[in-house]
TrEMBL record:
Organism name: Halothiobacillus neapolitanus (strain ATCC 23641 / DSM 15147 / CIP 104769 / NCIMB 8539 / c2)
Pfam family, one: PTS_EIIA_2
Protein's UniProt name: Putative PTS IIA-like nitrogen-regulatory protein PtsN
Top-level taxon of the source organism: Bacteria
Upper taxonomic lineage: Bacteria, Pseudomonadati, Pseudomonadota, Gammaproteobacteria, Chromatiales
A single MF term (Gene Ontology): protein kinase activator activity
Residue ranges of domain PTS EIIA type-2 in the record: 5-150
Length: 159
């Protein structure tokens, strides 16, 4: 798994304005979809994300949500980031509105990678300094750089 490939710049949106969790998940699914497969994949990924939300809210507190899922048709882990100018209700246990959304879709046969990525993200985002760096980043390049730095221990040779 090559972390730099997981978060291309076109999958990182900052200073966005959305009014609902549903809309954020729709946009996130579009970002996570393989551009070459069109709308069908976006719809499938949206359904995967919604199904995961039904199992339990993916908002982890402090204004952060990490919607994620596994997909049999996905060959490599993909990530996307949406940072909102104003928070939205995501159903977080701490009742804080969510402003930072990091989405993941991973191959169904790679549950270890899925859990490892989630664990590293949760660890860094619970660190005040790391969270502040992410929230103050002025460009998609800076956000991508932080993610690569945080997730680099998970890098494995590309297959």
């Amino acid at each position: 798994m090559i972390i730099a490939d997981m978060f291309p710049l076109q999958r990182i949106l900052i200073d966005e304005v959305y009014q609902s969790r549903k809309r954020v998940l729709e946009v996130l699914a579009g970002l996570l979809a393989d551009d070459q497969l069109g709308g069908q994949e976006s719809t499938r990924i949206y359904e995967i994300l919604i199904e995961r939300e039904r199992l339990g809210c993916t908002a982890i507190g402090k204004g952060i949500a990490i919607p994620h899922g596994r997909d049999a048709s996905t060959l490599r882990p993909r990530g996307a980031v949406i940072r909102l100018t104003e928070g939205i209700d995501f159903g977080a246990m701490d009742n804080q509105p969510v402003r930072l959304i990091i989405g993941l879709i991973v191959p169904a046969e790679c549950p270890e990678n899925h859990l490892a990525i989630l664990g590293v993200l949760a660890e860094h985002l619970s660190n005040e300094g790391d969270l502040e760096a992410m929230m103050q980043a002025q460009s998609p390049e800076r956000i991508r750089g932080l993610l690569i730095e945080w997730l680099s221990p998970l890098t494995t040779p590309d297959e």
